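pinned: reference chain
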Amino acid sequence: MQLGHFRLSTISGGRFLIDAGTIFGVVPKPLWSRVIDSDEKNRIQQATNCVLIDTGQQKILVDSGYGSKLPEKQRKLIEAEAGDPLVKSLAAVGLSANDIDFVVLSHLHFDHAGGATKQKENGQIVPTFPNAKYIAQRREWVTATANYPELEGAYPQENLLPLQAAHQLEVVDGTTEIVPGVTMVVTGGHTEGHAAVVIESEGRTAVYLGDLCPSTRHLPSRWCMAYDVDLLETRRQKPEWLGRIADNGWLALFDHDPDHAAAYLDRDDRRDFRVREAFSEL
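pinned: its structure tokens
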């Protein structure tokens, strides 16, 4: 999809299954089951809709999916795709890992940062994108690498520390312009350092919401994930962002929606939001 001078593309980081209770939190099944189907184990399908931004000078990848390093037990449990789905998706549009200049990480959970690194045949774990600068928020990085017992398993270190060891990591504080027209903005809520990515070119704007609003099913302001570490902040930030998107005619980009990677939104009569026009991919 063309956005001004920029070209946006959906790059799948792989699909997987996850318990619907973790995705919809306190929303009861009789409500969420109206908008998405689950299997016999109460699992729903999740996409990882990473976004490739081609500015004409740089190629920027937003998030990296779950990658190729998942333990086999976990891979089978969530029925994740084999291999590295992200690299395969890039190859499908004629690109290799060497072509990426920046990787912007909205946050550092396994399904967003897992594809940032890969394991070589000799067992060494290295950055997947050898020529890229990886961008993460400092607050997120500190939390993810602090080894808090309360967050055990939330941030696999093999996804993160090799970026620092290879001197390819840049941690930033708050709102940061990555390149002209691509800006990282902290939202908090889902994680302490969670960030959205605002993309602007020639008067047009798209917003990658990350897990602040992971799908079109999460447009109601109180439909939030059980994973959110600060639920109140999510409930504050989400309607503010969705309001700006709807009021200004911006494009919303959804990271986990299996059906809609992007949509234009309208306000509805319940002080929430609805899809005006949706796109399965960019």
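why pinned: The chain has a mean pLDDT of 97. Residues 73 and 136 are 28 Å apart (CA to CA).
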